[in-house]
């Protein structure tokens, strides 16, 4: 490990970069698959978070470990913030499009933040192994949120 990465810290940074690259490719593929319909795009982005290739105990544990360390490690923060900000902006933009087409009164930034917070919270519950939370029930909760927030788009 030290021969290739020079230090444990560089190994961890490379691991975090790999995880972000994998996650980014996954959600971008979901977005592309959805076509031009913002409601379908948002739905497939949400569904992508619960795909087995992304949403499994090993990967969730790694994400939560990195998130826990990010506050005290500027390198993790720098790597995470630009990617997280871009991903969040995609959510905001989609919520803005749904607001416009559906005549909703919410602020896109607020509803996008609520959605992101819920998705991250569901990942935490899945990682913690609570009995009432499975990938399937987490996806049901996310779908219920979409239906409640955007009833004209997800009846």
Structural class: mainly alpha
Q: Radius of gyration, Cα only, in angstroms?
A: 17 Å
Major β-sheet annotation? none
Overall pLDDT: 87
**Order of helical and strand elements:** HHHHHHH
Helix content range of the residues, please? over 70%
Assembly context of the chains: single chain
Termini separation: 52 Å
CATH architecture: Orthogonal Bundle
Per DSSP, the total helix count is: 7
| SS strand fraction | under 5%
Uncertain residue segments? none
CATH H level, superfamily name: Tetracycline Repressor, domain 2
Describe the structure.
This protein has 155 residues and is an all-alpha fold. It has a single domain (2-149), classed as Tetracycline Repressor, domain 2. It is built from seven helices and no strands. The chain has helices at 2-5, 8-33, 38-48, 57-70, 74-102, 108-128, 135-149. Helix 4 (57-70) crosses helix 6. The mean pLDDT is 87.
What would the keywords be for this entry?
155 residues; Tetracycline Repressor, domain 2; mainly alpha; single chain
